[in-house]
Amino acid sequence: MRWTPGMLQRLCISRWLSLLHHVLGVHRWEQNGLEHTCHQPSLSDDEQERKRWLALDSPAFNALRTIVTNKNLLNDMKQMTLFKHTGTLEAFHSVMLKYVPKRLHFGYDSMRARTQLAVLDHNKNVGRQQATTKDGELRWKYPYSRQSGDWVSKPIYEKTTQSFRKDLMERVLEMRDDPTIVYTERYKTPHGRRLLQNIAPVQRPEKSLLVARRSSRFGSHRTKPY
Ligand SMILES: [Zn+2]
User: Fold this and answer.
1) Where are the domains of the chain?
2) 73 C-alpha vs ligand 1 centroid, how far in Å?
């Protein structure tokens, strides 16, 4: 089946709106006489039970619904289906993670430089051709797709290159050797990599309180049970 622009637009909007069902814990519903399902992987009864779904007509759900069904947003989204594809954006995000791992904290300068490196890396590698074998045959891989619930074929692309780093280093050295460039800013020692202090949203209670809590949960013995 070939998708027409109108079909893509309707599909995009209906998937977007389907999230309003999903967040209520409703994964199957009827609309205009048709049965719809949400596109999340299905949940076990236990998972369905334990997730904290929003309640219909709660302030949180009403706020979300106002945003999700905003007319301007929906119109923009219709336009976007016609020319925007997220594959390249996803590829960029994964390159970003290489330079800016989420668990580390970086200062502003470092963050900017790392983002710039990610952009250079991405631009150098975006739009690679499908790889070929020695005999000139196109190369494919055959993963199992959870989304379609079946085995699929996907192209294998040519290897990425990091050659932009060498170009960059050469240009840095050239600039360093250029007597017409005068450096006025003093070199500041950058912050080292700093691990986040913690990921807790609330302050840690007193130590003694934590020990007391533990005792009440595990009994008072202080030796290892095994
Ligand atoms: Zn769902």
Assistant:
1) 5-83, 87-170
2) 22
Q: How far is the CA of 41 from the centre of ligand 1 (A)?
A: 7
What pTM, to 2 d.p., does this model score?
0.45
Give the Å distance between the CA of 175 and the centre of ligand 1. Answer: 56
Residue 78: exposed, middle, or buried by beta-carbon count in 10 A (0-12, 13-18, 19+)?
middle
Separation of CA 25 and ligand 1 centre (Å)? 6
Q: What is the pLDDT along the chain (226 residues), one digit of tens a residue?
A: 667 778 888 888 989 999 999 999 999 999 888 888 888 888 899 999 999 999 999 999 999 999 999 999 999 888 887 766 677 888 899 999 999 998 888 889 899 999 999 999 999 998 888 999 999 999 999 999 887 788 989 889 999 999 999 999 999 999 989 989 888 877 766 665 555 566 677 788 888 888 888 877 666 555 554 5
